[in-house]
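Notes from the pairing session

We agreed to fold both candidates in a single pass and log them together. This is the raw record for the first candidate, unedited. Please don't reformat it; downstream parsing expects exactly this layout.

Candidate A
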Amino acid sequence: MNARDTDFNHIVSIFMDSCRYDSCEAASTPNIDRLGAIERRYSYASWTSPSHYAFTMGMLPHKSPKRVFASEVYKEEFAQWSERTGAKDLEFRDFLPELSLPKVLSSIGYTTVGRVSMPVLNQATGIAYHFDDYQLMDHHNDFAGMVEEIEFSDDEPFYYFLNLGETHYPYMLSDENLPHISGVHGVLKSMDEDQDHGSDGFFDMNQMRELHQQQIRCVEYLDGKIGELMDKAPENTYFIVTADHGELFGEEGYFGHGPIIHDKVFEIPFVEGMIP
């Protein structure tokens, strides 16, 4: 597909890692709310890497519709990028054969930029493929640094793909005194370490509630930074705010995400649109 002469929207996709739907619902989010009502949607996967791979294909969290053929849902999902970009003739066939959103966007003149917080999404992985500029941040909770470096241009549209680690365990915004659960950081450097959760069996539910409340506070912090990003974004900027999967805080004996089948792992917040 050839580049077009149309003025396209800038696109900012924000993925709050591990943020479950009810955490976002419980948080005060005046900036995210500017985009519309936050929906309950569902992730295609329960772990960071496969979820983000689906995002790079162009497949965002789904609504779990009934009485439909999956292939028709997928085609409709790909076609929605026509409205998001402003490229009215963008179709499912434009994604073939690679099924790569950054490649499609690059082909119509976008500069594609990825900034990620989780090491499992680092620039050596296949997720980084087809991006013009893709980097793993030095720290897993540096959305403020992303916002500071983001720039927009009047001459070309930008697509920003942002994975935020603040809502991922250990939900640290600073040197806070929070429960530390060994072995569940979900980062590469600790995946080969022995996991010691102590001799008391599972986790203390008071700790679980404290961690859940901290994830809610992290959403509120991110909302403030999203407001700063909205202030510097041009009017023709299309925002997508969602998560890659949810999180368990002790429900039915589960903590975290990944090899878990539970509604709270797949329920995630979703909202998109232009700032009114």
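Candidate B (folded immediately after A)
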Amino acid sequence: MNRLVFYLLFTLLPLNIFAQDAYTLFDKQGKKVSYDKFLSGMESADIILFGEIHDNALCHWLQLQVLKSLEAVKKGKVVVGGEFFEADDQIIIDEYLKGYFSLTNFKDEAKTWSNFEQAYLPIIQFSKEKHLTFIATNIPRRYASLVAKKGIDSLQLLQSEAFKWIVPLPFDIDKNLPGYKQLAESSSQGHAFSLPFMIEAQAIKDATMAHFINLNRAEKIFFHINGSYHSDGFEGIYWYLKKKNPSQKIITVSSKEQKNLSVLDKENLNIADYIICFPEDMIRTK
């Protein structure tokens, strides 16, 4: 797909035309739902956890459309946040959104992912245009890496300033949650990412993201973007949010790739309130 065709598809085609073949929306039971019903199901939420596929171009396009649709209805009553920024970059994000410096300065100083311009910059620019607060929710990677190698107790070596960017310690970790158990099994099989404290590292990411969501919701809808594995199965971030405040309404979205988009694969049933299925050969962000 050349750049011109890609541009035309992703910026000019109406959502209802493009949706017919490019993706399918399902509820948790595997029933197809329309985009309008999908959106209306989220409008009364306190928190939306939009689980993404990090390098799926259409997934990023769709999450931007959802954010635009929510903002059109809520008119400033939306807070945006994402896993793709670490909490110690918050001041840089705030200053950029206020127009204090250029995008070049922003990209030079913030810790952006390799596909930032394709995947996440449109979210940041929309937040800037609409004067929406954007919250960096993820734990700084250096601390998550430390935990993965040496465990939670290793964080006690840090200076007190560092704890502004981490969920307050101690925090609960339920190692019996299916997602964490699966991670432990993968780690025990000697996969390349295997480290001694992988569950603890995953948990502190989930708990930290939940912590910053709770701190910054401000009676608005918090629209949070994260990898699907951080909220699938109503675990991860969702689990920590509910543990802190069981009464809040949280809507989860999971993104999956399938060969057949007409029927939800069995393994994808009941993993989220809504499941978005994309083609397996969707173009990738880099």
